[in-house]
Design brief:
Elements lengths: L3 H10 L12 H23 L3 H24 L8 H20 L8 H22 L4 H26 L3 H19 L16
Length: 201
C-alpha cells in the first residue's frame, strides 16, 4: 500500500500542465545540446568513411541517436524535469549520451562494445525509472512495461553487435534498429501485456 506521503512524492515527479501548455526547462535545453554534439560526431564519422557503406552505417547510428533522444524527450511530457529525481535521471542519461557520442566515430571499430553497452544501459535505465515514476497510472505503467520488453529485444541485438565485427556488426545493429522502429508500429505488442493504444498515453 502506498502512503499519502509516498503518493505526494510520486505526484511531484509528474508534470502539471496549465491550459494544456508546458514550459521547456533549462534541463531539457541542455539535454538537447548533448544531442547536437552527437550529430557533429556522426558528421565526423561520415567524413572519415565517405562512401556508400559509411553512409549506411551513419544512418544506422543516426537512427539510434534519434531514437534515444525521442524516447527521452517523450517521457518529459509526463515527468517534470525540475523534480530532483527526474533531474538526476536526465543528468545520468546526458552523461551516458556523452559517452555514446564520444564512441560514435569508432562505433564500427574498437569502441563498438562501449557504444552498445552504454546505449543499452541508458535506454533501459531511463525506461525502468519511468515505470517507477508512473506506477500509480495503470495505463502508462503497462505502456512502459511493453516498451521495456521491446528495448530488451533491440538491446540484445545492440550488445551482440558490440561483440561482433565487420559485416556481422552491421547486420546485428540493423536488426536492432528494425526492432526499435517496429515497436511503435506494432503498438509495442507484448505477450501477456497486449498492445498499447494512444489512449494509454
Amino acid at each position: 500500500m502506498v502512503t499519502s506521503g509516498a503518493g505526494s512524492a510520486i505526484n511531484r515527479l509528474l508534470r502539471v500542465r496549465v491550459d494544456g501548455a508546458q514550459r521547456v526547462t533549462n534541463t531539457e535545453t541542455f539535454f538537447d545540446l548533448v544531442y547536437v554534439f552527437a550529430i557533429t560526431q556522426l558528421a565526423r564519422f561520415l567524413n572519415e568513411d565517405l562512401n556508400w557503406h559509411g553512409a549506411l552505417r551513419a544512418v544506422l547510428l543516426l537512427l539510434a541517436v534519434w531514437w534515444a533522444w525521442i524516447y527521452t524527450a517523450w517521457i518529459t511530457n509526463w515527468l517534470h524535469p525540475d523534480a530532483r529525481a527526474v533531474r538526476v535521471m536526465l543528468l545520468a542519461v546526458m552523461l551516458a549520451s556523452l559517452v555514446v557520442s564520444a564512441a560514435l566515430p569508432s562505433a564500427f571499430g574498437d569502441r563498438g562494445l562501449l557504444f552498445a553497452v552504454t546505449y543499452v544501459v541508458m535506454q533501459l535505465g531511463r525506461t525502468v525509472f519511468v515505470q517507477f515514476a508512473v506506477r500509480r497510472d495503470a495505463g502508462l505503467l503497462r505502456n512502459f512495461q511493453r516498451i521495456t520488453a521491446w528495448l530488451v529485444l533491440s538491446g540484445t541485438f545492440w550488445l551482440l553487435g558490440g561483440f561482433a565485427a565487420g559485416d556481422g556488426r552491421d547486420l546485428l545493429w540493423l536488426l536492432a534498429v528494425l526492432a526499435d522502429l517496429a515497436a511503435p508500429v506494432a503498438g509495442f505488442y507484448t505477450p501477456g501485456l497486449g498492445r498499447s493504444t494512444t489512449g494509454d498515453w
